[in-house]
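**Backbone geometry record:**
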Amino acid sequence: MTATKEFWGWRISGWPMVVVEIALSASGLIFFRHHITHWLVAWLILLVFVARGFFVVQPNESKVFTLFGRYVGSVGDSGFHWTNPLAVRRGISRRVRNFTSDCLKVNDANGNPVEIAAVVVWRVRDTAQALFDVDDFVSFVGVQAETALRALAGMHPYDAAGDRMTLLGHQDEIAQDLLRQLQERLTVAGVEVLEARLSHLAYAPEIAQAMLRRQQAEAIVAARQTIVEGALGMVHMALNNLLHSGLVDLDEERKAAMVNNLMVVLASDQAVQPVVNAGTLYA
């Protein structure tokens, strides 16, 4: 398929042709007054022919011209114009539009069913491609947006540990990826994608509770790991300070006992009850 490229069609300002139309109307009155009837048919045809060439372009709108089945240009300048009366003119809006996809149920990269939806902000960039290279550019945007959304969801997990890109944790990167995929798909329709973002993201209801429990378990494990790492650092610092200060000289057994007690105090998730040793360390 050969892509159609937009170019500006021929037109002139409509106001000079208004003067011509008025002059033709005045000549018709002269024909009637002087009973010149054999010119009336030609006059009427010419009057209608000139009148058919007038058209108005609204702001952020274009007119696309076809002549005997061939594309002959577009006009995007707002105002009052006149062009070849035989040309067929079709209006197309260049205004910014929104498309909100339906909530789709798809599988993420881990095979978990998720619900996902997106909002796409777009506008027509090339009027010729939008009208002649696809059947219906508005429905084409909707179908391609949902296709790109399904493909995007299958490339990334909903959530994952580590540095892996996820749908939930990397919203900006996911939005840029979705915009890029949409632009690649919609260029053929002469559409420019201005913004694309996820508007809804959640686990499917049938696994939502199980995924919530898994997330809670992962959060607890991560928190405990952080606590243990911090406690080890504090114990190591305490032992080094005692060693360098010379306040007390501990053998390996007492160091092990001290490490055990400090780890219990620092890493326990329950309140620790202090025990006062009234004797000696070796009692």
About this structure: Residues 208-267 form one domain.
